[in-house]
């Protein structure tokens, strides 16, 4: 009887794997597609633009610094696969004025056609203890990381729904899945992106528009170098428990998941574990994805308890080290 039940379960899983491709989103064809990348002048954004360009897409780069945009344009153009491809550069702060963002998106669509894929990669990070951070820091990070994703998405969504085709990518962070010491301002702005993405996916799925949320780990980018300048000791030690990824590796995975219409995009074993653990009520792209989350949840939850326990021990150790000099001063 037990053997029969096991055989039935195996047959059921195999059936799901066979049926899943039939109900999954149709992959987006990048050759000739118009891809807009915000924050595309450096880091992950630039690497995503290169990856899409390698696959035949037309690229619009959006960022604030004109000099960096022009430099990125030259780098991207080296990877063209035909002489028809174009890289358009637009300088604007996507977090400040929606009307400006809407206008530049219109300009881009007039030159390169409707936007097939939007990648919201503009963002910044500042670390520090909650009481040490200025209130303006919370406001700035929410503006750049959250509203900087809302405005471009709002500018392209109507056309995507009308054409019944499109991809919108939000680049969050593993700190947008798990709150960490020193990231009270950063994590909250990245958590907000997930809420936006989940709600938006429910609205646009009937129109064949799919949303992807990417959760990259620490990645070797100029932004990560800046972030390290303000990290408290505890945050640095926690970050050192995982390796730093290359932006090219992260970009390839994000583009792959966006093309397929996957809602979650994670990198590496840590990323897969976090995505499975924090999936909650998030949408799944296929039956098999949902099945994988159900099966792995118990195992990963057990591993995560030890994982988080190690973070707690790091924080306590740092607190004890700081307390020793203070106790010595009091007894002197």
From TrEMBL:
Q: Which GO terms describe its biological process?
A: 3-keto-sphinganine metabolic process; sphingolipid biosynthetic process
What family does this chain come from, according to its entry?
Answer: Belongs to the short-chain dehydrogenases/reductases (SDR) family.
Q: What is this protein called?
A: 3-ketodihydrosphingosine reductase
The broad enzyme category this protein falls into is oxidoreductase
**Keyword Transferase, does the record have it?**
no
The metabolic or biological pathway listed in the UniProt record of this protein is: Lipid metabolism; sphingolipid metabolism; Sphingolipid metabolism
Q: Mainly resides where?
A: endoplasmic reticulum
């Amino acid at each position: 009887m037990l053997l029969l039940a096991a055989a039935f379960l195996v047959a059921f899983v195999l059936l799901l794997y066979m049926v899943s491709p039939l109900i999954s989103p149709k992959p987006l064809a990048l050759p000739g597609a118009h891809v807009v990348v915000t924050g595309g002048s450096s880091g992950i954004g630039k690497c995503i633009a290169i990856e899409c360009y390698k696959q035949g897409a037309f690229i619009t780069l959006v960022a604030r610094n004109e000099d960096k945009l022009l430099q990125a344009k030259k780098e991207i153009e080296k990877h063209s696969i035909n002489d028809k491809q174009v890289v358009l550069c637009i300088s604007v702060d996507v977090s400040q004025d929606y009307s400006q963002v809407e206008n530049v998106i219109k300009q881009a669509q007039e030159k390169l056609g409707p936007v097939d894929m939007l990648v919201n990669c503009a963002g910044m990070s500042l670390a520090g203890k909650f009481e040490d951070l200025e209130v303006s820091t919370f406001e700035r990070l929410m503006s750049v990381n959250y509203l900087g994703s809302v405005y471009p998405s709002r500018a392209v969504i109507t056309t995507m729904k009308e054409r019944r085709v499109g991809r919108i990518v939000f680049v969050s962070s593993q700190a947008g899945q798990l709150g960490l010491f020193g990231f009270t301002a950063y994590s909250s702005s990245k958590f907000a992106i997930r809420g936006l993405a989940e709600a938006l996916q429910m609205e646009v799925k009937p129109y064949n528009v799919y949303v992807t949320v990417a959760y990259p780990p620490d990645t070797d980018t100029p932004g990560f170098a800046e972030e390290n300048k303000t990290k408290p000791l505890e945050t640095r030690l926690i970050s050192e428990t995982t390796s730093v990824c290359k932006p090219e590796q992260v970009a390839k995975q994000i583009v792959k998941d966006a093309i397929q219409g996957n809602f979650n995009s994670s990198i590496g074993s840590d990323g897969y574990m976090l995505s499975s653990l924090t999936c909650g009520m998030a949408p799944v792209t296929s039956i098999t994805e949902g099945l994988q989350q159900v099966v792995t949840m118990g195992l990963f939850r057990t591993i995560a308890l030890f994982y988080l326990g190690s973070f707690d021990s790091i924080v306590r150790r740092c607190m004890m080290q700081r307390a020793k000099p203070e106790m010595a001063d009091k007894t002197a």
